[in-house]
Amino acid sequence: MTKNLKVILFYFVLLTLFLLLSWVSVPVSAAEKSMKNISNVWIFVPKLGQTAKFEQAFIAHVAYRKLMKDPRSWSVYQADMGTNMDAYIVRSCCDTWSDLDDYRQWNSQAKASEDWRENVSKYISHYEHHRAENDLNNSHWPADVTYKYIGVNTYT
Fold first, then answer.
1. N or C end of the chain: smaller count of CB under 10 Å?
2. Quick one: DSSP state of residue 146?
């Protein structure tokens, strides 16, 4: 093997090792694992002309989840002004990372996703799912919102 080939091979191995190590997860402390700061937000946009059917199916799905003892509390919002006023925002907060695993298990046993797919999803034209790790020391989402209007700001 020539000297140049050895140098190239060395840097290739070094780069490969660096890339592999960069994909390894950083350990999370016990305090971070137990912090209830994870929120889940779903955004659903009904198909054009299907809003009433979506709402009826959505209400029935919520009743199904209650019957199956859904461990999460969900809040549903709709924009009152601005763009995307046809969207339904469904939010749950606050979970730990291990709560997410427990919830996945509940969802599988309760067949909640199957109920959604069979009864509600046919009325949806678009949906999004967002999960956020909230900074609870600097962000305050009221536990019991009694206001008629809530302002939400997005910074990009």
1. C
2. -
**Per 3-state DSSP, what percentage of the chain is helix, strand, and coil (rounded to 5)?**
45, 20, 35
- Parallel, antiparallel, or unpaired: how do β-strands 38-46 and 124-133 relate? antiparallel
Q: Per residue of the chain (156 residues), give pLDDT as tens.
A: 677 767 677 766 656 656 555 555 555 555 556 788 999 999 999 999 999 999 999 999 999 999 999 999 999 988 877 777 889 999 999 999 999 999 999 999 999 999 999 999 999 999 999 999 888 777 666 677 677 766 666 666
What are the tokens at 156? 């990009």
**Is-contact 69 109, C-beta < 8 A?**
no
Describe the strand order of the beta sheet including 88-95 as a list of residue ranges: 75-78, 88-95, 38-46, 124-133
Domain 28-133 sits in CATH 3.30.70.100? yes
Helix, coil or strand: residue 67: helix
Secondary structure of 104-121 in the HEC alphabet?
A: HHHHHHHCHHHHHHHHCH
